[in-house]
Amino acid sequence: MERILIIEDELNFLEILSMYFSEKGYEVVTATTGEEAVEKFNGADLVISDIKLPGEIDGIGVLERIKKTLPDIPVILITAYASVKGAVNALKLGAVDYIIKPFDLEELEIVVKKALQSYELKKEVEELRRELESVYKEQEFVAKSPCMEKVIDLVKRVAPKNVNVLIIGESGTGKNLLARIMHNLSPRRKRNFVSINCAAIPETLLESELFGYEKGSFTGAYSKKRGLFEIAQGGTLFLDEISNMSPMMQVKLLNALQERKIRRVGGEREIDVDVRIITATNRNIEEAVKKGEFREDLFYRLDVVRIEIPPLRERKSDIPLLAQHFVEIYGEKFGKEVKGIDKEAMETLENYPWPGNVRELENVIERAVALEDGKYINLNSLPERVTENVELDEEFNLEKYIEKEMKKYLRSAYKKVGGDKKKAAEILGISYRSFRYYWNKLGL
Prior knowledge:
alpha/beta; Rossmann fold; 3 domains; 16 strands
């Protein structure tokens, strides 16, 4: 029920307006002064106010106060003292209409309905904007590296197009997330996004999962079940690890894509389907085609647009951004006041090869935030496999590595004893003089 606040100092006329709009199905709140109205307009969907009111706040004053705090609420001003200047001023300040007494109640109702419809539309648009912002915030690709900027640009260009997309990338690079982003940026976003990992389901079950089955079609089929193609109708179906699909299932999937029809297991009737197909794999699918392990005709059906996500080790400039992003997420989740990652810990994260890619980085930061009692994640909160990682490549410098390890131990001892350098030296088994020398040398 929409709420209307009516402000009028003529009690008889106020009662007439109140009764009329109450009978029309509106919830009516009344006020006889501007001061009283200011206390009541919060929660109203529309305000009708006389311009001339007793007290210090007249109708124009009410309008100004409403627009400062709730600018979208429609306000209709009424007056017995009409003037062009007054009407222009009221409309400039944000009134939706300016009505002169006497007037017909039905005409006023038409103005009210139009204003409320416009207000509802604004609220819907704002709600949709907030929902989309929330979706993008939760499901955005946090990246600044040139290679990922190219990927993101391609995603934005292909998302609105109704074409099949093949995503290639190592495990943990974010293929599922990328598919969801494409769905959310597409005209199909109001329909379902359905995902399935083809490698995780046996061939005998995969067919019934994708196409559904009829009652009695096999032992245990006590009732009919819709498949993922039907559930994703009008939306997006994401098939992860598509290269693991068996030859028989490849044939059935190809037929469904060509005919845009499916048949449930044990069923006789063909069902029209309209879904966008996004697939992904962490294997070299072209090599699988050459070996005869994956159908060439199906591959070309799926590989209309190809998006390759580079592994995290090839885009190290994204690591600080991603790490901080996960710090914020898990800091809020765990109720911790962790603000970020100290310099040494961040350098360690950047030097680690991340075989598990972004998924592994997220798990490491989740663990670190859970363990960290201070405001910044340090080496003590990172797992040993990360802190003890050493890559002996052409750029490896033993002296720098030793300095890095010395920094780690000096800082750790210093923090453990609460900032007492003499006690820290004792823990490390060196003299206070040596401790002070290395502390200054390493710029700690």
